[in-house]
Amino acid sequence: MPKPRRKNRRPAAKCKKKPQKPARTRSASRSYSYSRSGSYSESEGSSDGHSDEDDPRDYKRGGYHPVMPYQLYNARYRVLSKLGAGAFSTVWLCADEKIVSGPLVAMKVCKSKKSVAEQAQDEVMLFEQMQQNGRSSPFVVKMTDHFWHTGPNGRHKCMTFEVMGENLLALVKYYDYNGIPLPLCRRLSRCDGMCDALVAAL
């Protein structure tokens, strides 16, 4: 009897495992910050999210100005130390040498990028409107001066503000980015002396 023909079986295809995407971390590319400067902003570019530190890569044309301690700005403001940084500016503690024994100020130095400079101009106009005819609110940070400064990375808009306390980002970090507890939010939003930070950051 003839032998039955064997059917040629194709070898089973091996299942390829899809590469798993790495888990997303908290260091997203966006963050929102208010660094004692009177400005609330959303980050962009190479700066890491949830950070109040400036990225060294942003010290370039259109970026940050390289501020150094003890430098004098606008023939008036002597830099003492760094307060913080945001997506669009760095903020510095300065002594006003035109006012003997006067209060210290927070000097905000914006990036020289055109869009940032335009945003800074809008910010100045808003503060001037709010402070027109000597009007000011105890719940809004006060701008005391503004000027232009030209450096190696371009022309930067600078603003000076009264010095405030710690920013809300520090509180967010304290709770490990899991949200500020509701009772504390309620406490902060009441006008009990701590309202300044919350109102200024909104």
From TrEMBL:
Its EC number is 2.7.11.1. Residues 77-202 form the Protein kinase domain. InterPro entries: Kinase-like_dom_sf (IPR011009), Prot_kinase_dom (IPR000719), Protein_kinase_ATP_BS (IPR017441), SRPK (IPR051334). The keyword Transferase applies. GO terms for molecular function: ATP binding; protein serine/threonine kinase activity. The keyword Transferase applies. ATP binds at K108. It catalyses: L-seryl-[protein] + ATP = O-phospho-L-seryl-[protein] + ADP + H(+); L-threonyl-[protein] + ATP = O-phospho-L-threonyl-[protein] + ADP + H(+). Residues 26-48 have a biased composition (Low complexity). Residues 1-24 have a biased composition (Basic residues). GO terms for biological process: regulation of mRNA processing; spliceosomal complex assembly. Residues 1-61 are annotated as: Disordered. It is an enzyme of class 2 (transferase). Keywords: ATP-binding, Kinase, Nucleotide-binding, Serine/threonine-protein kinase, Transferase. PANTHER family: PROTEIN KINASE DOMAIN-CONTAINING PROTEIN-RELATED. This is non-specific serine/threonine protein kinase. The lineage of its organism: Eukaryota, Sar, Alveolata, Dinophyceae, Suessiales.
